[in-house]
Amino acid sequence: MKITLDISNVDYDALADVLLPMLEEQMGDNVWFPAALTSGGKATQAAKSMLRRLPQQRKDAILANYINRSRDKIAALLMDAARTKGLNLTVSNVRAEND
Asked: How confident is the model at residue 43 (pLDDT cuts 50, 70, 90)?
């Protein structure tokens, strides 16, 4: 069985603390994303502002990448939530695509 979810109205400001460390790792020594924008993995106002200014498609791609990198954790959370409702099932694949 395949279930499709469409996600919209994402609060990227609230996700900044989660997404920015992953972005920093992806960008490495890239000049436009200096490590000085983050401190110990916590997003600063400057980094949040940078994330806010990214085009919507780029922000969505970053979130899709985060979901794909976290697929095992997300699958476990979905299975645990189902079990609490009396449903025994296995989530075998979680995949996000940015249209």
From this structure: very low
* Contact by Cβ (8 Å): 47, 27: no
CA 38 – CA 58 distance, rounded (Å): 19
Give mean pLDDT, residues 66-74. 93
Contact indicator for 39, 20 with CB cutoff of 8 Å: no
Q: Hey, what's the torsion of the CAs at 20, 76, 92, 68, to 10 degrees?
A: 0
Alpha carbon 65 to chain centroid, angstroms: 6
Long-range Cβ contacts of 89-96 (<8 Å, 24+ apart): 94/67, 94/68, 95/67, 95/68, 95/71, 96/63, 96/64, 96/65, 96/67, 96/68
Supply the pTM of this predicted model: 0.73
Region 74-96: mean pLDDT is 95
